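QA checklist item 7 of 12: single-chain prediction sanity check.
[x] sequence parsed
[x] length recorded as 311
[x] structure emitted
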Amino acid sequence: PHLGTHLGGGSVDGNCLRCPYHSWTFDTEGIVKDIPYCPADKLGGALNQHNSARSYPVREIGGLIFVWYHAEGRDPWYELTMLDEIKDDSHGFRHVSSGDVEDFRMHNMEPSQNTTDNYHFLTTHQWFGQTPDASRKRGWLYVHYETGVRSAILKQKEDDGSPIPPEQIIIDEEIKSVALFGRYAVPVQFVAHTTANARFQGPQVVKYTADNIWFGRMVIVQVFTPAEPFLQRSRIFAYATRGWPKLFAWMLMHGIRLTVEQDREVWEHKVNCRPPKLCAGDPPFNAYNAWLRQFYSEKSIQWGDSRLLGS
């Protein structure tokens, strides 16, 4: 509205947002409610829809602010129910750490596509926390994972047998073996006490869950926010039940961040293959693509549109 100033630098005034430039005030619906310097006899005419701002559905969960955007302006058709446990006090979660992640220059579907790609855990993530290198023969810690993907499209269920919500996709992760320097096996008892999975609800919000028989549950939330075409801002947040020592919780969050960082080289150097060139034995990429299409509409920017070139 007005001269186009970014309202993100404004201030909250009661239930309104005050613009930092000329102090115009807008309510939660985006309606302009006050213009402090406008003459009283002109103010009524200025407080109209033409001078109002666009509003968006907003949710506050666990101290995080989520904004719903739809290319056609439609209302949210799902809620971030996978985060219910961190906002429900009865589960005993507390915020233990958070941090920025370096921007990713990629399409925002890349992280969620990883949930389908079980084989890349044997290559990209075989050396914990180290930059992937196809020629690497030795590293600090070799990890062998066994993974599986679940979604409604694949006709699979939640652990309790209930349906998986159509907007969610899950990857189950099990560490089968660990070897120090790739040579000295770590007894399986050291890793068997923790089970983990990652769950996307939409392509931009992922929840990593770790259940430990001694400490309880830890939830790590990572968000990917489009700043412009092929530029995603990311932050990571950790929540844990009271049994988790803060140092261990921070170490696990940092480990997740390092694991995601291992994917950067691939994510930032991919091309769009249409149609994809698949073979027998590939993970269910077509099912993933069908899952992803539900988050786009006819007015979404299409491949080849000049707007994808950014600024």
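[x] summary fact logged: The mean pLDDT is 88.
[ ] second reviewer sign-off
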